[in-house]
Structure formats: structure tokens, C-alpha cells
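Hey L., structure's done. Input below.
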Amino acid sequence: MNKRIILALSALLAFGTLHAQRQKGKVEITGDVKVSELVKKHIEFNEKMQTVPGFRIQIASLSGPNSRNSAFDLKRRFKEEFPDVEVYIVFTEPNFRIKVGDFTSKLDAYVFMQRIKDRYPGTIVKENVYPIHLDWSNLVPETEDDAGN
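Output:
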């Protein structure tokens, strides 16, 4: 008897679920208009901001008195040694972190880290997201149609 009741309830539940899935409805979320405006602005900002995942090498993390000046001195010194490599100072209280490079692969970051680790001990590769800087000057059309001929 119990098996029949369980079987009947299971069949009824399955039928109800299938019936509910066939019905199409509309979900309306009610809330503060300011929240939806902020979400819309956030989406627009993210669509405009083109970023790419990548890697940077952290060469130092400084804190304490005079850490700001030390960070900028280190940035200047690194830039003198490697003028073609970008240097960034990131302040997350209470630390000044000095990061270098815009590497698109972890392997490239590790290769460069091997070059500098003797001069900058304690370097580590960190994942990063940074804006895409597109250089359109070297763009070569693939076909004559692309070139506008």
C-alpha cells in the first residue's frame, strides 16, 4: 500500500514539474530604481573597458615609514635598468607593491623573472588584468576588400 502511495505521489510530482516547465512566464524584480541604474552603468563600463588577463612580476612589497619614497626610488632604478618594461606601483594599505611587465603568458613572465631575480630577490609572478592597448598602426589587411580597394 505504501509503495502505491509513493508511486502515485511521484507520478503527480513529475507531472506537475513537466507542466510547470511548459508554461512560459515573465519574472519581474521590483526594487530601488537607483540599484538598477547602478547595475546598468556597471554593465556599460565593463563593455567599454577592454581588458585582457595577464601576468606581472612583483619585485617588492614595502610597508612602514618611508615606504612610499622607497617604492618610487625602486621604480626609478628598475626603469633605468629596463627602460622598455613598464613599472607599476600599487598601494593596498599598508603596502606599496612594485610590479613590472605586461605579460600575456605565464611562461613569458617566468622567463623575465629569471633575468631579474638576482637583482630583485623575492620576486613572484602575479596574475593580473590590464587594459588592452591596441596598436592599429601595424594592422595589415588580409584581403583587398579589407584594404578598401
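The mean pLDDT is 78. DSSP finds five helices and four strands in the chain.

-- N.
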